[in-house]
Each structure stands twice: as C-alpha cells, then as structure tokens.
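RETRY 2/3 - previous attempt timed out on the joint model. Re-submitting the same 976-residue input unchanged.
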Amino acid sequence: MQRFLDPNVLAGISSLDLLAKTVVDGFVAGLHRSPDFGFSQEFAEYRAYTPGDDLRHVDWNLFARTERCYLKRYRGETNSQLTVLLDASNSMQYTSGPPMKMDYARYIAASLFYLAIHNQRDAAGLIVFDDEVREYIRPSTRQGQLARLFAGLERAEPHARTNFAKPLLHFQNFLQRRGIAIIISDFYEDPETIVHAIEPLRYHGNEVVLFHILDPQEIRPVMKGSAVLVDLETDQRIEVVPEYAKTTYRAKVDAHIEELRTRTQGAGMDYQLLTTNQPLDSALREYLTLRKAGN
Amino acid sequence: MGFLAPWFLGGLAALGVPVFVHLLRKHISIPRPVSSLMFFERGTQSSTRHRRLRYFILFALRSALVLLIVLAFANPFVRRAAADSNGRTLLIVLDNSFSMRAGTRFADAKQQAFAQLAAKPSSQKAQIMALGGQLEVMTQPISDDAQLRAALESIQPGDGHANFGELGRAIRTMSDTVHGPIDLHLFSDMQRSAMPANFADMVMPGNVTLLLHPVVDGAAPPNWTVESVDAPAELSDPKDPKRSRVQAVVAGFGTPAASKTVSLVVNGRAIASKKVDVPANGRATVDFAPLDIDYGFNRCAVRIDGGDAFPADDASDFVVRRSDPERILFVHAAGDPRSALYFDAALQAADQASFVLQSVAAEQATDLDPSKYAFVVLSDTVVLPSIFEHALEQNVAKGGSVLIALGTDAAHHAQIPLWGGSAKDAHDYARSGGPATVGQVDFNYPALQQENPGRDNGGWAEVKVFYAMVVDAAQARVVARLTDGTPLLLEKQMGEGHLLLLASGLENLTNDLPLHPVFVAFVDRAARYLSGSERLSGSRMVDSFVALRAAADPAGSVANVEVMDPDGHRPLSLAEARTVESFRLQRAGYYQIRFADGRDAVIGVNPDRRESDLAPMPPDVQQLWSGSSGGGATQTTDAAHVEGKTRPVSFWWYVMLFALIVALAETALASRYMGTQREEA
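RETRY 2/3 succeeded.
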C-alpha cells in the first residue's frame, strides 16, 4: 500500500481522479487486512416499510420469505458532510523537491473527496482560499460533484497571502449542517490567531481537523553558507547565516508546531502535521476516525 | 635584485582582472525562496564579514598568482657577492715539502691558508692541494667550508721535494678540463731549489691567476746538512780498508766558515766522531773507516752535532748489511776458460760488490743448485744438462737471475737456454768490413747506470764488437744496441727473476769489452742488480719507488709483500700487499720491506738534499712568475678584490614554484566558494 500512497509516486500521476482512486483503493485494501481497524457498512436493523421510502433499500429476500416489506438499515448509512478548506497562498508553492506543498495538499484533498463521495457517500465541498475565498464548491452528493471538486482543486493555484479570518467567516455563512471541516495549510501564522479564527467552526458542532503541510526543509533546513532568503508571500528579503538555521530556526519551528498542536487540541480540534515526503494514509485515516466518532 | 627580462613586467596589467572581479564587479547573490520569513532573523552582518574575509583571501591569492607568474617571466635575480660569480674557483696549494719543517714555516703557511679560506664567500667553490714530493689533491672543487677546512687541517709537513715545475704542469693539465677562471693561492717558502731547470715549466695557463704567499722574509738562515753519504750497502769484511769506509759530504747553505762535529751512528750508537772545517757556503768531506758492524742489517747515520736553524736535515740515514760474500756460478763451455777469468777480474776490481766467483764447465753443472748462488752466468753455454737447466728455470721463476753471454757456439744451436728463442742469425763483423761499436746505451738501466756519461757513450763507444748474435727481442727490453741496430744487451722478465742477455761473448774474442774499463763497471753493476743485493740495503731518496714484485700476477702462488714505515706502521692493506708492484717511499727514516721473493730489506730513506737549501726565490723571479699567470696578479694575501665582485643569481624557478602553491590554494578556496554558490542557486 505504501507504494501507492508515496507522494513521490503520486507526483507522477497527472490526473487527480486517478490519483485519488489509486490512493483510496490502496488505502481501503490495506484496511481490510487490518484487524484493529475494521470498517464496512455494518447492518444495524430492519425497519418496516412506509410509503415514500426508497425502494432500493427494501430487503427483497426477506420480502420473498415473509411477504413483508422491510427496509434494511446500516450503521454507516448516516451521511456526513466533508468540507475541505485549502490554503492556496503563495507559501504553498514552496518545495525542496517534488511534490510541492500545494500539490501534496491537492492529493490529500482529492483522496478525501474520493473516499467521502465514492466510498462513504458523504457530501463533500471545497473552499479554496488565500487572503480571501477564491473558490467555493458547496458540499453535495450530487452526480458530478466529485468531478467539480477535482476541477476546483485543479484551478487552485498558489496566489497571494494567507488570511484565515475571511474565508472561515465565509465558511460559517455557508455552513448549513454540521460535518467535518478539514483545513489544509502550512499555517504560517500565529497559533493563537489561527485557533481564534478556526474556533467558531467548532461551536456549530463540526469536527475540525488541521492538516499542517510542511516541506521537510522547512522543519530542518540545511544551509551550507549564508544566503539571501525571499519570502514567497511578501517578497521580503533577509540574509541568513547557516548557524541560525541550524539552531534558533529549528527551535522556533518546533515551538510553533507544538503550540499549534496544543492550542488546537485545547480547542477540541484535531491537528495533524504532514510533511510532503510522508504517505497520504495518515490523512485518510484521520478522516475515517473522525467520521466514525461522529456517527 | 633586478630582472633579466624586465619587459615581462608589463604583464602586471593583468592584476586588473582580479581587481575588477573582486572590487569593481558587484557581487550577484541568487536569492533562495522560502515559504515565510516568520521564523528567520537577519544575519547579514556576520555573514558579510565572513564573506568579505573569504573574498579578500581569494582576491589576495589571485593577485599574488598573477604577480608571481609575471615576476617569474621577468626572471628576477639577486646579486651575490662571490668570487664564483664568474665561476672562479679558489685553489689553495699548501707547500708541505721537507723545507717547510724549518722553523715555523709550515704553521705560518697553514695559518695564512686558513685565513684565505675564511675570507672566501660561502658559495664560492674551492679546492685544496698539497705540494710535496708530488701534487696531492685533497678535495675536489667544493663550497663546503667544513670539508675544506678539514682537508686543509689534514695536511701535515712531509719529507718530499717540492717542484714548482710539477705544480705548473699539474695546473696546466687541470685547466684542460676546468675552463673557468682559477685563483691559485700558493702558500710556500718559495724555495729557490724548487724551481725547475726550465722556467717555462712553471708558467700557469691563461685562466689561472697565481697569488703567491711566501712565508719567508729576507735571507734564509744558515743551514748545514749531510749532503751525501758514500757507504757500502753490503759489507762482507769490515776490515777491508778498501770497502769498509763511510764517506760523507757536509755542505753549508748560507753559512759562514765553521768547524762542525760529525758523528757516525750505527744502530743508535755513535761509533765515531770527527771534526771537519766547512768553508763558507762550501762543502767538506769526512771519512769514517773502518766500519765496524755486526752481521745483518745495521741502521747507520751520519749526523752533524750542534744543530742549526734546520736540525731535521742534519743527519743522513743508510743501512749496511753485513753478510758473507755471495757466490756467483759461472758456467762456461769446456774450451773457454778465458771468459771466467775476465769476469772474475772485473768483479774483484769493483768497489762495492763482494762476490766470489765459482767457475764450472757446463757438463759439470748437473748437480749444482742454482738457488745457492747470487746469480748464474751462462757464458756461451748453449747446451746445459737438462737437470741443471730445469733447476735453473725454477730458480729464475722464484726470483733468481741469469746473465747469458752468447759466443760463437750459439750460432750452431737452435735453442738458447732459458731465453725461450733461438738465435736468428750471427753477425760476423770481422769478416764483413770491420768491427761494430755500441751505438745506443740506456744509462738508466741499473746494470748500465751512469750519472753523467761522457761523449764516448759512457766508455761504450770504444768497445769493438766482432761477432754478435741476433736474437729474438720479443718481450724483452733492449738496453744497448750496436751501431747497426743489432740488440747487444737485452733483459727479459721471467717469473720473479731476470734474464740478462749479452749478444756477444765475454772471452775477449767476439769483442774487446773485457779490456775496457767500462767492463768493470758493467760487471759490478750487473752483479749487484742480478743478485738483488742492491735493493736490500743502502739508502734511497724520499719519493723514490721500490719494486716489490716482478709482476702483478706472478706465476705460481701469490706471495704477500710487507712494508713497515719509519713509524712502525704498515701502509699497505692486505689486498694491496697481494697485488701492489711498487711502493713509494714517502717518509724519511728506515723502511723494513719483505719482497715477494721472500727476501728482507732495510732501507734508509733521506729527503732530497735540495730541500736543505732554504734560500727563497729572488723577489723579481717571484714577481715574474706571478706576473706570467693569466690574471697578472702579484703576491698578496688580500682577497678583497675577489669579494667585491658579484654575479646575478636567477631565482625564477622558486618564484614559479611559489606560484604553483598559490594556484593550488586559490583552486581549493575558489572551489569551495563556487560550491556554496551552486548550492544557493
């Protein structure tokens, strides 16, 4: 399974739907082999048919034996709503080697959409944002939703700066029912500001997950000499010495990640740090865990 | 310092390249994008300092590289004060001849030589030679001062006779191979007697500047010496008034008339003493007779008592060997009693030798042992008993000697005994227009030796030869020829022994030699030479040679020779003792020698008495000699004129080597720098 979920392998797949299918199929196949993490649409109960019920759920075998019409109910049948908030700011185009952070985020989002719509029949929606909402695809289970979502992901090119407040406010406006909100970003912002911006989502009963996407070089940068660094979002330039990158920078990044993890978990949200060289299964596993907990 | 090719300094304009690259061209730094500068802090100050330092080192290296390459092409040089600036070689010749033992001459000369050596620039090459009995090269031309000083220090006063003519010849030979200029400093007492007969022999070649350093000022001190001693080397009867006597000549050089006491010392004991009046600058003769000595070798000396300015030459050593008279076997044809008569008469008339002649007919010689005789004479005996002939061959091979005289019988036989060839022909001069005479005589040959042969060819010109055999002269040394070129006297080496062949007879029929006075001298010298007794005792001069064996590789077993010098040391190594043919007597005193044929000898060795004349060369002659050399320098100890000269010494090679090192350092640093830039890109 790892081979199919390896970001380096996925970078060679140009089509998002094929990529998502590859990831999810591989992931699900892996789950069946795992005794600790059983998952299927489990049978829950029979319910007497009432007019208006969907005839597709009638247990015709039982009807043949008893001539009574019953509907078969499953545990996972309750549909959830997945909304992915994708950060498409300039900082997401950083890479020290394939894939780019933005691409990695796309892979995660596509895989989640595929898993949600194709396997779980959940409604899935997408908000692409930077300093404002650039794309909004309302969560739906309609025919062609998956294709729309993939198209939305394709159009999500890094642009401008990040601003969490405006897109989240927008998201709250569109939120009709509770569900799962997954925010994919590199979160180059003060953790308190981030949590303060995201925390209102939690008030509506949403399960909120933060997927923190970082390049390995952003966590442990390697510099052989002093260099001029350019901020991808602000174009600001400063000269940095290797000694700083080896010591102070790493400490600061580690502190940032830890604070973000602590604050988000303190606010009842889940936090997942993903580096672009990690397989995608951890993101999918997180989603399924949340969905199961929500049911 | 200067430059041999200064126009290459124009290449210094290339220094502008690193200046432009490092100082004028703005450094372009390729920025490196990051997601956010949120966690970065500016480190510009430290970074720039490091970079500037690194750039400065790189700039310095590049500039140095260009500078060094340009300098190397410009061929820099430094001027080094040295006499070898023009390849001049300092040649120090220290006279260590016998006369340098007088007073403090040698010490003074050595001190001056050391001073000259100390004044030499360290880089100049110098060579040390010692001028004694022969010119001894102590070092090759080198610049190592320590080695030169050690070589100079090792020179000790000798007993040889210096000869400036030999010095001139050696230097002329050396100049054939060493073409550079040579400064020859001669430290000597400039003895007049060291001058050769021909002044041209002293003249130095054109590239040699002769600088004389005489250690004697003014007139020479008066010096008496035992100039010569006439004493028998062998003595059989001490009471023989004719032979048992020692005659010495006392000479004075620069001396007033004086009465000197002269002693005869035998084996360390003065047995006689006489007073002699020596005239001013003259000679006086003193006789000691009889010479009462014991059997064996007696180490004798004639000594002047009282001493003078040069006591080392006040004695003359010689050795007298007392032995019973030696026998000579005279083998003659049965019908020839005359030859033995003439030969014995000549032998008895001789001054020195003490031999007893035993005359036998050839057919009676069968049972005789030749080794019991000093030598054997075969007088016209071409047919010998085979046993005797074989014994004679063995004896000659071991060192015995034979005198062969060919009479008329030789013409009738194919083989000459021992000689190894037959008589080719016979010249009967009596029947072919008159007797022949002796035309050519080698007066250096021991049996014919004469100091100053007269116009009559040393007496040989009067000899008439009526009949002579023509023999094969191959492998033989012809020492006398008749006027028609026919060899008359020949010598051939046979093993350790000698064969002396007279191509005519001794019977006063084939020639009239026995009637001439020269016959006595010939028989005397030939007897002494053939018996070998001449070399067993007596006296020799320093630097003369003694023949230790007949050939380097004698027939039969190789016999060792042994030489013990006056100090009791053995100067020959074991390897030399088995191979060396002759030995040079370098020291004054008594030498003990054992020859290859097993015979022992003790020889008294004396310095050349010309060394006793301490008078120096006249100043004008010295001036003439030094002026005749290439440089025309006069005698002086001042070497300042040498020190003032300089020569350029190029060191571009070192500059280029340094440039290579700088290039390697620049490559390493630049590679590191470029590596950083690539990483940043």
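Residues 112 and 284 of chain A are 6 Å apart (CA to CA). Closing ticket.
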